[in-house]
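B., you asked whether I could sanity-check this one before it goes into the benchmark set. Here's the sequence:
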Amino acid sequence: VQLAESGGGLVQPGGPLRLSCAASGFTFSRYAMRWYRQAPGKERELVATIGVAGGSTDYADSVKDRFTRSKDNAKNTVDLQMNGLKPEETSGYFCSAGNNYWGQGTQVTVSS
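And here's what the prediction gave me:
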C-alpha cells in the first residue's frame, strides 16, 4: 500500500498550489479520501474529504471557497487545489484513504 503526495513547495501569500496524491496497492475506488495538515507543535487538522465516487466533498470552514479537491478513480489519484494561501497554512499536508492508509506528506510553506 502506498500513498505518495506531491506538489508541495514554497508559495507567496495569496498564491495557489496544487497537491496530488497517488495511490497504489489497495482498491482506491472504495475509499473516501481525506487531506489533513499538521504543523509542528499543532494538532492535525482535517482539511478536505471527498467521497468514494468523488461526487461529495466536505471542507474545513477555514478553507471553504479557496480549496477544491478532486478524485480520479481511473488514475488512482486525488488532488487538492489550494488558492489564496495564507502564511498560517504553512504545514505538512497528508492524504489518507479512509484513515486506514497514510502518505508521508508534502510540505507547504507560505511565505514572502
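One thing to flag: The mean pLDDT is 94. Otherwise nothing jumped out at me.
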